Amino acid sequence: MEEQQSNIHNHYEAGSNCQVFNGNVSGCVFAMPGSTVNQYASQVGKEGDDTKAQGLPTANSHECDEERFHFVHPEIDDDEAWRIHDALKRLVAHQKVPEICVYLKELKQKGKVMLPSISAIMYNELVRLGMPTGEGYSEKHFSNSYTK
User: Fold this and answer.
1) Is 26 exposed, middle or buried (0-12, 13-18, 19+ CB in 10 A)?
2) pLDDT in tens, 2-47
């Protein structure tokens, strides 16, 4: 399978809030001002090639601007951290507050997360991940379950 290289130059003027990239930009590109980024795009091959080989997004890819769960333990590698993030997103979307708190405590015991002592900080983070804020999901109710 052939790879095609495209060069992207990041032009940034000091004091400016704007960065201009020349070249074909596809997917997520993060670069420091003044840097050059080399992207390699795979050519779409024969039928039956998997999506990874074609350079297409997979089901487990994350949004470019999606911020990972903030309280992953620093010794956890990136792949595991994203698995924790995804599990927590599913959890807060489908479970009640007491179950969410129990799971967070289990993750803490396993050394996968570090929980803040202030419940409001964790509440805001879980809301950011998709936890509802309606009936049964108030900050006061969360605080009561979180501190038990």
Assistant:
1) exposed
2) 555 555 555 555 554 455 555 555 555 555 555 555 555 544 444 5
d(CA 20, CA 24): 12
How big is the chain, counted in residues?
148
Residue 108 Cα distances to 25, 104, 105, 114, 121, angstroms: 39, 6, 5, 6, 16
> pTM for the full model?
0.59
Task: Quickly count: other Cβ atoms within 10 Å of residue 127's Cβ.
Answer: 15
Gap between the Cα atoms of 47 and 25, Å rounded:
26
Amino acid at site 37: V
Provide DSSP, 32-87. -TT-EEEEEEEPP-STT--HHHHT---TT---TTPPPPTTB-TTS-HHHHHHHHHH
